[in-house]
Design brief:
The complex is a heterodimer. Chain A has 22 helices and 22 strands. The chains are: A alpha+beta, B mainly alpha. Bound molecules: zinc ion. Zinc ion (ZN) binds near residues 348, 365 and 366 of chain A. Zinc ion binds near residues 335, 351 and 365 of chain A.
Chain lengths: ~625, ~475
């Protein structure tokens, strides 16, 4: 009856063919092609970042210096926005409609899907108000962040500040996301990996409307937030505060170290700024203002100002002379108001003559130390002046000059002591001698060192021959010890024995009789050893310099004070150093009359402050890290 | 009683077993796709899986009722049921409830019924009745028109709802005609037209015209066994086209290439017609007729695409053909569906562990896109299992259909097979991105009572007929 029964095979074949096509296709999308698994994950997962509180910073006595306060960012995900009452939103956040529109436009242009900051650091009250009404504002949420807060407005240069990550960090360090904060300078930058902690992540499943449904895989993909590590700095907050107070009328720097450990007790750069200026929303404006200041408060003079050390350098001249045995403590020289060769003249002041080494340090005789340079450079052990000079320079290298010492802060500069080749180039080979470069003997000329190098030099003398690299952090919570390079002794190429006479000389500078240059730095019951310096300044008044350590036996503090444009070291730098030492060693100032006197010294001669953008750009070079 | 026992004994339990497995596995996946919103009780009637349990229970009752009726009932009452069906389809247009933009639902006591689903088995009954009647001959034009009418009338009512997916399903009845001896060459022509249809969507009209002309010339060369004649015609057409093209260019009348092509075919066609009649040479005329039909077809397809189909339907077709890429727009469904299935991998994420389907990334995840849940949670193993289940069911049903002595039973069986097949192909094809998104459910598997009941009717009427295959002779 039916002639088409064979057509059943067409049906069967079609069915088998369809099944095969389907199975092959499924094999391709389910087994071969792995990309769908990735799509699925990004589809359904939503991570909410949890920001850890940044580590706290304590001073060496355990007082808290830096802590955190909560800040509230209003975030927006443009894709999730639904029409909302703009007027109410503007009222809550206290912004104009145009402002709100502009902010939304910016967020949209950044990303439709990724949340971005709609408004940074709104007040707690505003954030709370918005949080309450969040259901009216689909697409918005409040992100809690922390901002830095300071117990005492000091040590801004050492502590540094925290700012938003920039594009180069985003490109190079995957940890950071747009809008994250990062230590930009100071300890905040150097110890960023400790202080920041570890961002946490809660992974949720979200549905197609971006609504959170549940924790993904019972939180197996969550990243636990790790709170930032607390640090104890080497700074003595009281001493730091006192130093900043003493320096406040001046331009200059103080660096105080603990000789036995290399710990920085105080690091003052004047003028300074209060650290809370560079926090949060006020940061960029304040930064602009500070950068436009002709006295450049952002410039950390303690590490970056390269000054001639002046007469404080005579201690080093003596050390090298002794080590090379070109002088002894009994070497004596005459001085009649200066050094004369032909028509060349370097002045000296009125003092007894002749002087032996220790007395020469006490009296800070220029002639004597030019003669030390002469003996050193004419040393017959070496074939020529250049090689003698380079040997001399080698000793200086061992004391930490001409290179950054290696404190944690990356903006430290190196100072300068020229090589022999430099003089060969300027004067011609064998056409220069101790007379040509005599300024070096008295810490002038091409010599440039930073205040921290000066303090380190002082600590080296206090230690009779070694230093420990200065550092700002003495304890990292949870770590057994700090970096080894901040524990090692760096021995100089000068024998310990040779430091004795120099210490004696420095003792006499403060505690000697007639001829002592810094008797005003004397403190009852504390044996202070010091050396004054006055650096000629071709651009204006001389710089006032003083280095000191105390007590003489088992020194606890080594200090360098540099006051720009204030003339003799004795007048400004020495009293400031003396007060700092007293403050640190006795925790109080008994000589209140003296303190008052120092604070009321003649009106400081500070260059006129200007806001001149052409100057700023050149000064800015040093502040950028 | 005796008859009942005989019916039970003659029942094809293999089909019933496959039916049960598909239905239960389908329910498990519906449960998984909806479990996020519920507190977990499988009998929660506010949830789809709870409702589906009722549909399944009801379909078991329905199956028994259908088996209890006498096989002859389905033959005798097929036209009657068909008429009632047409009435109901008209009724739903007037009294129905509009859901998702289609007025295709009756709502009875909280449950929704979609009469267009039941139209499928009833149409199959009527078609079987017609095709198995005495002296019915598919080669006779009016007989063919009758069959066409039975097939076409329900979808014409349904398209008014509108429900394009259901309408497409009825085209599968052509397969029944094919099995009953409908001309294979006409089937081939229909297939060629289907191919032409997609080509029209894919390629420029002028290019298709060129391809058609080239194809006609090649056929002519083969048919007349003369290379020279074909080339001669080609040169003529090309020359005239070049002339028209030049005139169009010089006069700057902006006729399209397609129009110019049509115009240049005219002189050659007239020569063919005149010469053909005079020399009684019909080969060229037949080829010309085919060419003209094809041209009319592509013009009408083009017109339909641009003027009849709604923009979103055009988009779906274009996206499926890969002509448009729009992962967040129309392509979203397909894309999310592929992601869900693809993310299942070889062995799946585990039952109830899918994320894509539960989180509503996949639309219609318990109805049209239920296969995504299988793919995501059961992986390649699960999807292959489902496809093999259906393939097994199909082969079993073909075997059953072919063992009928009664044409009515066989034709109805093939009606079932054809409708089931198009649902299977279109549904799974769209979830894995091989076919356009046309919203039709996976039979026995997707959520939905109407569909489940309609296919249960199909299966159990057929099994009832099969159980009586020795008694039924017509
Ligand atoms: Zn002198």
């Amino acid at each position: 009856m039916n002639h088409f029964t064979d057509r059943r095979y067409v049906f069967a074949a079609a069915i088998i063919l369809v099944a095969l096509v389907f199975i092959i296709r499924l094999f391709q999308i389910q087994v071969v092609d792995k990309s769908y698994k990735q799509y699925a994950l990004s589809n359904a997962q939503s991570a909410r970042v949890i920001y850890p509180a940044r580590g706290l910073i304590y001073d060496r006595t355990g007082k808290i210096m830096v802590y955190n306060k909560a800040a509230y960012d209003i975030m927006v995900t443009p894709r999730l926005l639904e029409p909302f009452d703009t007027t109410e939103m503007c009222q809550i956040l206290d912004i104009t409609r145009e402002d709100a529109k502009e902010r939304l436009r910016a967020a949209r242009s950044y990303s439709m899907r990724v949340p971005s900051v709609f408004m940074k650091q709104v007040s707690y009250e505003n954030a709370a108000l918005l949080q309450e009404k969040l259901f009216q504002f689909q697409g918005f949420y409040v992100q809690t962040r922390t901002l830095r807060e300071y117990t005492t407005p000091v040590a801004s240069h050492a502590l540094g500040y925290v700012g938003e990550v920039d594009q180069s960090i985003l490109d190079n360090e995957p940890y950071y996301q747009l809008g994250d904060y990062i230590g930009v300078s100071g300890i905040e930058k150097a110890y960023e990996p400790y202080l920041r902690g570890q961002k946490g992540k809660n992974v949720f499943l979200k549905d197609v409307h971006n609504q959170t449904i549940e924790s993904y895989q019972e939180g197996r993909l969550d990243v636990q937030v790790v709170v930032g590590t607390n640090l104890t700095t080497t700074l003595d907050m009281e001493l730091q505060e006192y130093g900043e107070k003493l320096m406040s009328p001046y331009v200059g720097s103080i660096v105080a170290l603990e000789p036995a450990t290399g710990e920085v007790l105080a690091m003052v750069s004047a003028p300074s700024y209060t650290p809370d200026l560079l926090v949060g929303r006020s940061l960029s404006r304040a930064f602009g203002d500070l950068a436009a200041d002709t006295l450049n408060p952002l410039f950390n003079r303690a590490l970056m100002a390269q000054y001639p050390p002046g007469s404080t350098f005579k201690t080093i001249m003596a050390l090298i002379g002794l080590q090379e045995k070109v002088i002894s403590i009994n070497t004596s020289h005459n001085c009649y108001y200066g050094f004369y060769v032909g028509n060349i003249h370097t002045a000296c002041h009125l003092h007894d003559t002749p002087l032996k080494l220790i007395e020469a340090i006490q009296n800070s005789c220029n002639t004597y130390f030019i003669n030390v340079l002469k003996s050193t450079l004419q040393d017959v052990k070496f074939p020529n002046t250049a090689s003698t000079y380079d040997n001399w320079r080698g000793h200086l290298l061992s004391m930490g000059f001409t290179k950054p010492l290696g404190i944690e802060l990356t903006n430290e500069l190196d100072g300068n002591i020229p090589e022999a080749s430099y003089f060969n180039r300027i004067y011609g080979e064998n056409h220069w001698n101790y007379v040509t470069i005599r300024s070096l003997a008295i810490g002038q000329g091409e010599l440039l060192i930073t205040p921290i190098q000066m303090a380190n030099m002082t600590a080296t003398i206090a230690n009779h021959g070694y230093y420990i690299t200065p550092h700002l952090v003495k304890d990292i919570e949870g770590e057994d010890q700090i970096d080894e390079r901040y524990q090692e002794r760096n021995y100089t190429t000068i024998d310990t024995a040779n430091y004795g006479p120099i210490v004696e000389g420095m003792d006499l500078v403060v505690n000697g009789g007639k001829g002592s240059t810094a008797r005003n730095a004397r403190i009852a019951d504390i044996r202070v050893c010091g050396k004054t310096g006055t650096a000629e300044n071709p651009h204006g008044n001389d710089h006032s310099i003083f280095i000191a350590f105390a007590p003489k036996e088992n020194p606890k503090i080594a200090i360098a004070v540099y006051v720009e444009n204030q003339g003799f070291g004795t007048t400004y730098a020495a009293p400031i150093a003396s007060l700092m030492i007293e403050k640190y060693l006795t925790r109080e100032i008994k000589r209140t009359w003296y303190e008052n006197w120092v604070l009321q010294l003649t009106q400081p001669v500070v260059p006129e402050r200007k806001r001149d953008t052409t100057q700023i750009s050149t000064m800015d070079d040093g502040t950028e890290e | 009683m005796v008859q009942r026992n005989r019916t039970m004994a003659n029942l094809d339990w293999i089909s019933i077993l496959l039916w049960l497995v598909i239905m239960v596995f389908g329910w498990m996946n519906i449960y998984s796709a909806n479990i996020m919103e519920a507190d977990g009780s499988m009998f929660d009637l506010s949830q789809r899986f709870g409702k589906q349990l009722i549909w399944i229970g009801a379909s078991l009752v329905l199956a028994m009722l259908l088996l209890a009726l006498d096989a002859k009932f389905y033959i005798y009452f097929s036209y009657f049921l068909y008429v009632i069906l047409l009435g109901v389809l008209l009724g739903v247009l007037i009294f129905g409830r509009e859901i998702n933009g289609a007025k295709s639902w009756f709502v009875i006591g909280g449950f929704q019924l979609q009469p267009s689903e039941f139209a499928k088995p009833i149409t199959a009954l009527a078609l079987a009745n017609l095709l198995s009647s005495h002296n019915y001959n598919l080669k006779r034009f009016w007989h063919l028109v009758k069959a066409g009418a039975i097939i076409m009338v329900p979808p014409m009512l349904i398209i008014l709802q509108p429900d394009l997916g259901s309408v497409l399903v009825y085209s599968a009845f052509i397969l029944v005609l094919f099995r009953e001896g409908f001309s294979a060459s006409i089937m081939m022509m229909l297939a060629a037209l289907a191919l032409l249809f997609f080509t029209t969507l894919l390629l420029d009209k002028a290019l298709i015209l060129l391809l058609l002309v080239v194809a006609s010339l090649i056929i002519y060369m083969v048919a007349s066994r003369s290379f020279k004649k074909g080339v001669g015609n080609a040169v003529w057409i090309a020359g005239i086209f070049g002339l028209f093209y030049g005139i169009n260019y010089l006069l700057q009348t902006e006729f399209s290439l397609f129009m110019l092509g049509l115009a240049s075919l005219l002189p050659v066609s007239m020569v063919v017609v005149v010469k053909g009649f005079r020399l009684r040479e019909y080969v060229r005329m037949k080829i010309l007729a085919g060419l003209i039909i094809s041209i009319v077809f592509i013009i009408s397809v083009d017109f339909a695409m641009n003027n009849v189909l709604k923009p979103h339907q055009q988009h779906r077709i274009y996206v499926t053909l890969g002509l448009e890429d729009d992962p967040q727009g129309v392509g979203y469904n397909v894309n999310q569906s592929k992601i869900a299935i693809g993310s299942g991998g070889f062995s799946g994420k585990g039952y109830l562990n899918g994320t894509q389907t539960k989180l509503h990334f996949v639309p219609e995840q318990s109805t049209d896109f239920i296969f995504c849940t299988v793919g995501e949670e059961w992986g390649f193993l699960g999807t292959t299992f489902v496809i093999l289940l259906y393939a097994g069911l199909f082969l079993r049903l073909i075997k059953l259909a072919e063992r009928q002595r009664s044409s009515f039973s066989r034709i109805f069986g093939y009606g079932f097979i054809s409708i089931l097949l198009i649902h299977f192909i279109v549904n799974i094809g769209m979830t894995i991105g091989l076919l356009p998104v046309i919203g039709i459910p996976l039979p026995f598997f997707s959520y939905g009572g109407s569909s489940l009941w309609a296919f249960t009717m199909f299966l159990f009427i057929f099994l009832r007929l099969d159980a009586s295959r020795l008694e039924l002779l017509r």
